[in-house]
Amino acid sequence: MKALAALLGAAFTVMACYGLGSALAARLGARLRRQEKFPLAFVLGASVLHLAVFAVMALKVAYKPVLILLLAAATAVGIVSGSWRLPARETSPSPKTAAARAIQLVFGGIAAAFTTLYLFNAWAPEISADGTTYHLALMARYLRARGFEAVTTNMYASLSEGVEMLFVPAFAIGRNSAAALVHFAFLIALALAVLAYGHRIGRPLAGAAAALLVYLSPIAGLDGTSAYIDVATAAIVFSVFYWTQIWDEERNDRLLICIGLLGGYAYAAKYTAFVMPLYAAAFVVWRSRRVKPAAVIAAASILMVAPWVVRDWLVWSNPIAPFANRYFHNPNIHISLEQSWSAYLRTYGIENLWALPLYVTWRGGVTGGILGPVFLAAPLALLALRNRAGRRLLAPCVLLLGSYFGNVGTRFLIPMLPFVSLALAIALESTAPVLIVMVMAHALLSWPRVIPRYASVAALQGMPWKAALRIIPEDQYLRAHVDYVWARMIEEQIPPGERVFVRTPVAEVYTSREVLMGYTSAFNEDLQDLYDTGWYLDQYPSKHWIYVLPAGQWHGIRLVETGAPKSPSEQWSVHEVRFLYSGLEVPQRPEWRLRASPNPWDVRLAFDKSEATRWRSWETMRPGMFIEVDFGRGESVDQVLVELSTEEWNVRMRLEALDAQGRWNLLPAQAGKLTEEPTRETASLRHAVSREFHARGVNYLLLKDDDWGAQYVAADPSSWGLTQLAHAYGARVYRVNP
């Protein structure tokens, strides 16, 4: 029944997309050919259905019956209007030759073999990394809440989720596999669209070859059979291009609505596809010599983009979260997080990016997949510039390539695959045997058992038909994957409604508990910083700066950073600021007003009397940063004690005082420095860490044995104020002792 439910959930969602898309295309007077009707109508309908699901989620009525009724209504639109029917077959002007029939048979056989492989992989229980950690995990969380939640503890929740909106109804009916099967439908639609475009431009062999180059690519197969979004994005991107070509042939301005909806949906699917509405607008202006068509495209695109921009503004205080936090200051994502994450995505640790073509085509490894060795011949696609069809294909490819270098993972090349494949096939079409051999070699080199012979990369694991049909129970199949086991440990050991801190990912979709992964938000990074203070000597508050002030009363004191960093990763942090008079600490008063720049939201951590916490700039240290206290009246202070971490080597500070007229003036204070030798035998500090976790509403931790610092916790949990609840498969679950 689980296998059947997954298939039905996906099929019902695909039918709804096709029903909406075919009805809209017919309403706008599009004359689609038989081969292109399904892929173009399906993707167009997906853009409309995603908006409907967004509305259901925003209204908090995402109940299973409501979602089923939505799919039924969308499907009925296509059936009742009669637009769901495929056009009549076109008569061929000349009979196929024996060679053409042989090529069709060979290509068809290859496609059938890979389709069977892909179907069972998509149908099997979902265990993909990103699919289980956020693409589906967030949708499962929304469904439990009957709609959107303000999830500010996971930056992935701030990304546009246009494709995931289609996963929602499928997931509600058939759970994880249904969502993966919906994504597989996009892979089929993409291949069919490439095939159909070849026929539209009068190059059927090039279209068939290009379709297989895309369809058989190992990264497309791996991504397209998982609950990911990259293949779907590629189908949307190519659909934008396809519809612009149809408009150019027919000059039916009503089709501009389709182009605009799909252009905006490209952004809603994935930020990196934002160039497509720009491309579409530029193309129609160029071809029509009019600005009005671009305005129509812009208006339709905004309809798709606006819900996601508004949601991010309301939840994250940043319309394009998780990026541009330097310009949209907010307490949810640290600037340093965005910078370090973005810097990693630009290189994936590859020292020489000139080697990137080898990584993404042949070697695999750090870039997370391969396109296939035949794509080392991709530069030959430039030969297609000799004709108009080739030039039109390569223009959007150049735009997409520009956005690719923001994330050099192999799957971020998938949206370019249809354009490169078609251009390459067009360039080689005159030497048909070479093109056919290339496709057959691509098929051989892309088969899962062959890939490990030449590449070190994740690939499909055979044909798991027993797991797909649930002949092997789902739990039994999934327990071969430790990410799933860790998620089940969380589910079994931690009570409902509790939150758990982890340093590295687990398969979150398989637990209903909120998982707080160390680097995915400001809140989580603060937890991780707390945890690290308990074991990492460089973060111990062992360095004290003592400032001796001249006699007098001060209305406020400001601590200003004057030092320069030696590296971009160097930050300014302060564990505690204390004010003393005659050797006694000045007690804090309710009228004290605390400020800091940057990161004003955490300034209280420098005044909370906890040795475990610290205020951090969370961006590169620079002169002019400050922490200040406005006492609200004259306060007698003759010493200022500033507690810093051991790692604060380049910190230099000065004091400023607030006078009765509200002016800040340099304070001629004498500074002295005292550094204590840090030691890990500090039980009070470790207990303080646990108390801070508890104060933040986080009472559980799951630490894998190879996580940083995990060995210190495992050696003596009681010294941390923790109780170990379980240890299995290389991970331990702890409870905070209140």
In the sheet with the most strands, the strands line up as 2-1-15-17-16
Could you estimate the helical fraction of the residues in percent? 40-55%
Q: Count of DSSP E strands? A: 17
**Number of helical segments with 4 or more residues:** 24
Low-confidence stretches: none
Largest sheet: 5 strands, mixed
Shape label: elongated
- Quaternary structure state of the chains depicted: single chain
> What percent of residues are in strands?
5-15%
Description:
This protein is α+β, with helices and mostly antiparallel strands. It has 3 domains: 2-453, no CATH class; 486-534 and 682-736; 537-675, Jelly Rolls (Sandwich). Helices cover 48% and strands 12% of the residues. The protein has 24 helices and 17 strands. The strands form 4 sheets. A 5-stranded mixed β-sheet has the order 2-1-15-17-16, with helices on both faces. Strands 7-6-11-3-14 form a 5-stranded antiparallel β-sheet, with no helix packed on it. It is elongated, with a radius of gyration of 29 Å. The two termini are 44 Å apart. The model has no long low-confidence stretch (mean pLDDT 93).
Secondary structure topology:
Blueprint: H1 2-27, H2 34-58, H3 64-81, H4 98-123, H5 129-135, H6 137-144, H7 164-200, H8 204-215, H9 218-224, H10 230-250, H11 255-269, H12 275-288, H13 292-316, H14 335-345, H15 356-363, H16 388-404, H17 417-428, H18 432-446, H19 465-468, H20 474-478, H21 482-493, E1 499-502, E2 514-517, H22 522-533, E3 543-548, E4 553-561, E5 573-574, E6 576-581, E7 584-585, E8 593-597, E9 615-616, E10 626-636, E11 639-644, E12 653-658, E13 664-666, E14 670-675, H23 683-695, E15 700-704, H24 710-715, E16 722-728, E17 731-736
Parallel strand pairs: 1-2, 1-15
Antiparallel strand pairs: 3-11, 3-14, 4-10, 4-12, 5-9, 6-7, 6-11, 8-10, 12-13, 15-17, 16-17
Helix pairs in contact: 1-2, 1-3, 1-7, 2-3, 2-7, 2-10, 2-11, 3-7, 4-7, 4-8, 7-8, 7-10, 8-17, 8-18, 10-11, 10-12, 11-12, 11-13, 12-13, 16-17, 22-23
